[in-house]
Recover the amino acids of this structure.
């Protein structure tokens, strides 16, 4: 459903700060793929996501989404197909607005009309959906989102994202800023929603166990290249140390991310 | 006398509602206001003088403000300059335009024509005219406030609020923030110009300098309102704006009326308004710091209680 061909990204071209973030990336994402993406800081994972979402334009190459060329399509237009969740829990919700106002904004994607948004029927629907999060938010519809904890906000963001009915989900380390308990809750909810709504997903994670344990495909990135692309079969036998070993073989250097090696859950 | 302050405050409150939309709801520091307020006054005055009906004059004022807002939003959107600069550009250009609208003069009186504020007492015959004016203005403000309340409960209104709080979220949800800004800043300045059109009729003239310092006055009124009560519902947010506007005008009246005891002249009022905004900011900040400190203390206490409980439990285990 997503085809990335020969995509590259150069920041600040022609200046002393010129930096190639991605080089000739080719990637084909199939319907219902759940792909985990690992790589050290600066390897180009976030840049790749920004290019797919359309936050900034590609330097070269093309992007095809659902058979349509979206290389030059504005971010807000691609958003009809793409749902995106950031690492920062404050990025996905509007702090100064109530939970119900946030949900109603997400419920219908795209430009809005002059219909009165909320009524008892839709509030009941939101309360019902919020119950799935088991965080008691169904009783706090009128509370401002700014009052929620990071975990609650990220769970709400997740719910808002799936309610907006995307087909491709981009998860950019969406549990990394949460404490382990909340990270687990949000992760479980994510997988639950992906299954229920039949989504295709790309998930960046720093957690090697998550990368190996979740999804049907694993990508490893380094210095702007995709250096490993493992299928479900190959993933089955994988361990963290084996993955680090593979990295060493491919790149002929040490895997330099202590955090990934130390994280255990 | 007292009714006068209320009428003045109510007319002013429509302007403050406009400032509320740009500053608080859109989080867009818009200085167009200083120009568009006078534009509204100028357009309404010239329309009335040249025989357009009173309602028509107010509609034209509203539209002229909307156009000013659209220009600011377009400069900001397309040239990627900060909202503040875009607003200053429009405001400065409007100063020349306003004098053009007034036919090359800086001041045009509404002398031999009937304005809305002369018509209202006639319509409400039997009531003392000061009270009739108050009731008439109250109705106008109530209608405007209700329309705003309803607008910010529609899908579009909520989306505009969401953009003010988090622009990335609006993009992620498939909306073009440029369009939302055009609508929001346009509406904000339309209200500001409408207020200008009403004020010109109330005081009986339009002046090219009418808008000077309006933004700060609007902010002062908003902040006074925010001290009254806390709410995230649009109905109450707009209500406290109206209260804040009236209280602000009351304070300014006191300053003008009794100020001479302490050697205060009308020209000092802008200084006072600025100081009022600064004091409001200081109070808000102190309050904020106090509540954070309070929360911190509570958190420490909770943690200590938890540690103690754990230590106690651990001790029990050891004994067993």
């Amino acid at each position: 459903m997503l085809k990335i061909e020969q995509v590259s990204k150069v920041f600040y071209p022609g200046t002393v700060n010129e930096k190639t973030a991605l080089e000739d990336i080719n990637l084909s994402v199939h319907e219902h793929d759940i792909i985990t993406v690992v790589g050290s800081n600066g390897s180009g994972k976030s840049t790749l996501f920004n290019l797919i979402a359309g936050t900034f334009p590609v330097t070269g190459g093309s992007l095809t989404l659902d058979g349509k060329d979206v290389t030059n399509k504005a971010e807000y237009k691609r958003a009809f197909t793409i749902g995106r969740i950031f690492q920062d829990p404050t990025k996905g919700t509007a702090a100064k607005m109530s939970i119900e106002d946030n949900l109603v904004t997400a419920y219908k994607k795209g430009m809005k009309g002059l219909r009165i948004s909320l009524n008892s029927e839709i509030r009941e629907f939101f309360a019902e959906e919020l119950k799935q999060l088991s965080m008691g938010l169904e009783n706090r519809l009128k509370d401002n989102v700014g009052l929620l904890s990071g975990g609650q906000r990220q769970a709400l963001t997740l719910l808002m994202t799936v309610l907006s009915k995307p087909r491709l989900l981009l998860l950019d380390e969406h549990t990394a800023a949460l404490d382990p308990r909340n990270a687990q809750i949000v992760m479980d909810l994510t997988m639950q929603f992906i299954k229920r709504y039949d989504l295709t997903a790309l998930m960046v994670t720093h957690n090697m166990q998550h990368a190996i344990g979740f999804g049907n495909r694993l990508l490893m990135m380094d210095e702007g290249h995709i250096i490993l692309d493992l299928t479900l079969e190959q993933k089955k036998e994988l361990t963290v140390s084996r993955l680090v070993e593979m990295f060493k073989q491919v790149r002929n250097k040490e895997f330099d991310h202590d955090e990934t090696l130390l994280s255990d859950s | 006398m007292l009714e006068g302050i209320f009428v003045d405050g109510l007319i002013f409150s429509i302007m403050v509602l406009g400032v509320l939309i740009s500053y608080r709801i859109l989080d867009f520091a818009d200085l167009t206001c200083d120009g568009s307020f006078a534009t509204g006054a100028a357009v309404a005055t010239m329309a009335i003088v040249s025989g357009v009906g009173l309602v028509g004059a107010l509609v034209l004022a509203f539209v002229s403000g909307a156009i000013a807002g659209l220009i600011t939003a377009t400069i900001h959107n397309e040239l990627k300059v900060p909202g503040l600069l875009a607003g200053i550009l429009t405001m400065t250009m409007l100063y020349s335009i306003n004098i053009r609208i007034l036919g090359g003069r800086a001041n045009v009186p509404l002398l031999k024509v009937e304005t809305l504020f002369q018509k209202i007492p006639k319509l409400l015959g039997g009531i003392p005219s000061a009270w009739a004016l108050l009731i008439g203005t109250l109705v106008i403000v109530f209608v405007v406030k209700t329309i705003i309340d309803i607008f910010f409960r529609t899908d579009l209104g909520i989306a505009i609020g969401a953009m003010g709080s988090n622009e990335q979220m609006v993009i992620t949800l498939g909306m073009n923030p440029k369009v939302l800004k055009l609508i929001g800043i346009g509406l904000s300045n339309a209200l500001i110009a409408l207020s200008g059109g009403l004020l010109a009729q109330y005081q009986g003239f339009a002046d090219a300098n009418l808008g000077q310092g309006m933004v700060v006055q609007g902010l002062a009124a908003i902040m006074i309102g925010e001290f009254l009560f806390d709410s995230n519902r649009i109905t109450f947010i707009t209500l406290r704006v109206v209260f804040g506007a009236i209280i602000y005008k009351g304070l300014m009246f006191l300053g003008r009326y009794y100020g001479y005891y302490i050697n205060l002249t009308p020209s000092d009022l802008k200084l006072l308004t600025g100081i009022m905004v600064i004091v409001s900011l200081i109070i808000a900040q102190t309050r904020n710091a106090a509540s954070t400190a309070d929360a911190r203390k509570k958190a420490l206490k909770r943690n200590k209680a938890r540690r103690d409980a754990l230590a106690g439990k651990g001790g029990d285990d050891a004994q067993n």
Summary: The domain at 2-264 of chain B is CATH 1.10.3470 (ABC transporter involved in vitamin B12 uptake, BtuC). Residues 65 and 190 of chain B are 4 Å apart (CA to CA). Strands of chain B lie at 107-109, 205-207. The interface with chain A takes residues 150-151, 153-156, 158-159, 161-162, 164-166, 168-177, 179, 232 of chain B (CB under 8 Å).
